[in-house]
Specification:
Oligomer: heterodimer
Structural class of chain A: alpha/beta
Strand order of the largest sheet of chain B: 1-9-8
Structural class of chain B: mainly beta
Shape of chain B: globular
Radius of gyration of chain B: 13 Å
Helix content of chain A: 25-40%
CATH superfamily of chain B: Rieske [2Fe-2S] iron-sulphur domain
Shape of chain A: globular
CATH class of the largest domain in chain A: Alpha Beta
CATH architecture of the largest domain in chain A: 2-Layer Sandwich
CATH class of chain B: Mainly Beta
Number of domains of chain A: 6
Largest interface: A-B, 39 and 46 residues
Largest sheet of chain A: 5 strands, parallel
Largest sheet of chain B: 3 strands, antiparallel
Chain lengths: 833, 112
Amino acid sequence: MPRTLVVAGNGPVGHRLVAALRDKDSDGEWRIEVFAEEPRPAYDRVALTSYVETWDPAALQLDGATYECDDRVTLHLGDPVTGIDRAAKRITAASGSTVDYDALVLATGSYPFVPPVPGHDLPGCHVYRTISDLDAIRMDAERSVRGRRAALVVGGGLLGLEAAKALRDMGLSPHVVELAPRLMPLQVDDGGGGLLRRLIERLDVTVHAGTGTQSIAADRGRLLAKLGNGTELDVDLVVFSAGVRPRDQLARETGLAVGERGGVAVGADCVTSDPDIYAIGECACVDGAVYGLVAPGNEMAEVVADRLLGGQARFTGGDLSTKLKLLGVDVASFGDAHARTEGALEVVVNDAVAGTYKKLVVSDDAKTLLGGVLVGDAAQYPLLRPLVGRDLPGDPAAMIAPSGGAQAVGVGALPDDAQVCSCNAVTKGAIDGAITEGCADVPSLKSCTRAGTTCGSCVPMLRQLLEAAGVRQSNALCEHFPQKRTELFEIIRSTGIHTFSELIDRYGNGSGCDICKPAVASMLASLGNGHILEGEQAALQDTNDHFLANMQRNGTYSVVPRIPGGEITPAKLMVIAQVAQDFGLYTKITGGQRIDLFGATVDQLPEIWRRLVDAGFESGHAYGKALRTVKSCVGDTWCRYGVQDSVRLAIELELRYRGLRAPHKIKAAVSGCARECAEARSKDFGVIATEHGWNLYVGGNGGFTPRHAELFVSDVDTETLFRHIDRFLMFYVRTADRLQRTAAWIEAMEGGIEHLREVIVDDKLGICEDLDAAMARHVGSYSDEWAGVLGDPAKLARFRSFVNAPGRPDPTITFREERGQPVPLGLPVAVTR
Amino acid sequence: MTAAGTWTPVCAVTDLIPFRGAAALLPNDEQVAVFRTSGDEVYVLSNVDPFSGAAVLSRGIVGDLKGVPVVASPMHKQRFDLRTGACLDDPEVTVAVYPVRTADGMILVGSP
């Protein structure tokens, strides 16, 4: 008979406990009842700010949070524990239900502290902790549509800056008020805080430090906030992010011991003053300290999971190290960041020009690393943090010197028991062990050891450890070219080589294969080398590009004429219908708002296209690694809700980028309002109309691993929009790997979307003029590929069934009828698998 | 292995682009895939992809795998040795190889 564990609270730490216990409880000793206050499965609160990018709660949900396939876990959503009867060992929940427990874990987290400022409870005042809080903020933000929209954030700590980012992403101008003289007073020192402020103010965030909020008053539908220094701010909404307090009321009511400043008192065993009750996470006060970070909470969860199964694990003291990207600015703080250890020395490199501030705190003999602060560039964090409390491998100043000292020191400097992943307590030794067992890349290390699966900051270290172990990820395109695609692209671009044979003679070996040939063909096409079937290029193309159609399972092809933006006249619809009828083709509407005609044989393709081209159609490039369609909703021409002409923009975009060859297919869409009927956020680039212009999203896709596109720029005019998309696409064409969609490309990019923004918006690399010129060349040199074939007898001659019997149809191709249309008859297959 | 007189002329070598193939029909209605690699080197395999049953091997990309001349099926990319018909991705699978010779620039295909 299994014992019953009740978990009060379903935040990330509560979920971690359940996951860890279920993982370890191989004998099924426990059944678990989880009582959650919130109406949804556990989600990643650390990533709350990213909710603004998707407004999709599911995107934040933690792995396994629904416990769907686990009949030993019962999840009660929207039903928090309201009372504990310790004598009866029974809890009561809000719904009135009761459960008898053998063990109870309090994981109730904390609540936002709202300073008692007059007006703090007016409509428009919010806190920042849950998905519901963000939904409420969004409703207020969208209500205020006139003029310059602004918001006040009370508290300039980590959470306040996260809130400022969320508000900025919603299109408001945030003002951050911080009582301390600097931002993030807990994590960074004055020097780091000063730089942080400068970097953040560049991003349309106004900082008011060293002053408090005196009062908030309603003022003609908005809010008027008065600060201690006399400043008056006219804002649309207020967000309080002035710290959190442990939620310990359940413990107080049932007479459990609590800490001096709150929190359920526990020891290193996470046991409260009642031996059957544990407390973990932000509601716990471990030996007098309350921890407001997820990593110590996770450690407590693991301790309790171990102890419930008879183990003796103890909480070893939280690692308060943090690395995060706040509004695109890297901030890291670790160990004794404020040099509070007796005799501690500080080594500071403050580079105001580069916008970086780095400080190491070392012991009085300068031999042991005690902590540090990094602002503006935290690349050295993953290597420095595990060294805290250990002997420094070199001169501390050299380690933070501008020329990347710490990287030069390398992972070899870390001892085996150093934690590489502090979120999941994974040591260097454990990772090396997994590599020895056969993990050969970062994804397999992640699934094997859980390292890098929470905040991700140690992923570069995982890569370095793989390299140090001699595991090399080959970048070679294939056995014929040692270069990767980006390098080959640069070679072709700078040498002006325009044939595959010259390229492989000079830079490769052998005769090529089905990997390098289409890849090089695509690069030659991106760089403008005439018709893709001209001369030697024809031999390089995949069958789809070779016949400018999509091969289907019986060897026939499908035909997709371009229908820009999905807009088509009845007359042109009739042409497509007549062609399909005359050639006996199966017709289906595609997801990209066009019409696919199936079942054409190779020799029929030119005849079909002659008819289509004569009627004004052109190739839709459904066969190519190229721009496919720009889908659109009907826009403000017809729609009652539309705010811009999405159809016109979609057509302009589709005509601008048609025929652009890329590392993979490119899909796009334009929505005429925020209702997003065109599903633009599931595209490589998506445009959503706003009252003031266009929001551009990049890096979305459907398919095997669906991804939402991320907001790239907001409220831009049409000209700016084109310029940004031009550069985005050209940069993608030049620097992505073969068959890498834009989402994976951005993900793999050092610095991610922030870096992309620097390249495209700020021209950090100084290449925008070149990208613009390349796109102008593409747009100027476009011509229809099918018209090019129909006008050239040599190319037409390839479209024949048999070289020695051009008129004879392929006898293996036969059809049957289904729902009134032809479909392929199954073919005899020699090999079954 | 083939008696004189059963050679079927299919096309001129120069009708094929180097490193590409074409389909041809033999008098017995068998379909073959005729490939040209560099120069005048010519290979002939059955045109039917054994994995899908579709007559498409002639439309695959021709190249080499560690020096072995191969065609990659355009359907699911399995590679076949142009000399032996052996599938390099599945040792159990082979496609038929046809004898071939050239005369006066014409490609002649025999029976397998």
